[in-house]
Write a structure and sequence with these properties.
- It is a single chain.
- It contains eleven helices and nine strands.
- With 332 residues, it is an alpha/beta fold.
- Helix 3 packs across helix 4 and helix 5 crosses helix 11.
Amino acid sequence: MTSSVYLLGSGFSRAISEHMPTMDGLSAAIRSDLRARGRPTLPGEDTPLADNFEQWLSYLIEDPPWLDDGQKFRNRAAFSDVAESLHSVLSALQALAAEDAPPGWLPQLVRYWQGVGAVVITFNYDLLVERTLLTEAAGLRWTGIYPVPIAPLGIRTSGILGSRKNTGGLRLLKLHGSLGWWYSGPASPPGDQLYGTRIDPWGPASSTPPIVGVDELSVDKVPMIVPPAAVKSPYYVNNTIRAMWRQAAEALREAEELVIMGFSLPPSDQIVSSMLATELNANAKIIPVDYSDAVVRNLERIFPAERIVTEYAGLGDSAVPKWVATRANLAD
């Protein structure tokens, strides 16, 4: 069986549920959320800059040389508001997505990943893959999904030490964090512990008992999610996040093919482009599975065209289901 690595972007979550946002939709939802909570207007919100969410966030977190100190501090405060709202908005949209049944191809794909012990690299914050895995893999606990030490949040009031080691099955590397993870913030020391909250199987929130004590146990923590800004370096200081990036690079070096699902590899994402260019096995085939064929053009900026398999690119809503029906079969 071919050794494959899977790379997921926001288009993958969008393929799972129409409730999950595009980048433009996320920008609008966050601005609406901040207005509803009475937060001040964000710097640059009423300019064309806000039309490009990533560029706008980069403007807020960087130190533009034409701004005075007061303006820079206001920008940083606005960025903090956006990061908080990002967690709130995505959590609400994820809850809506979980109210519906998952598409038929998703359980099949996750069972396949679990069966072959796939390495899945994702830049998505949501827990839709984890929910599906817990639904499909009997007896699996959420602490067995991630191949890095994510401590149960309840450890803060108990003597339980750590999460259990990932032993076989799907290895999910969430390089931009997760809605279920908490830590002390981007200014915390590299060794700051990441804590995780319980993940429920697929289904509406009303079908499971509430998670008790999360608000109290996380009162001094913030969500571990890396906002979609061009400048992400402060978030990559954490040792656990860095460990996942190192594992991702190792998997890419050993891969015979890279399957990219719903991630367009935008030119602005230079970190990911650099990792793929320097770490991906020189003989690996690259298979974009995407609504649009724009990803093919972006890949051709980095790799020779003969390495790129275009069969599943530009197929609209049928892209991921077609790949799953054709390839996600344990008998292969």
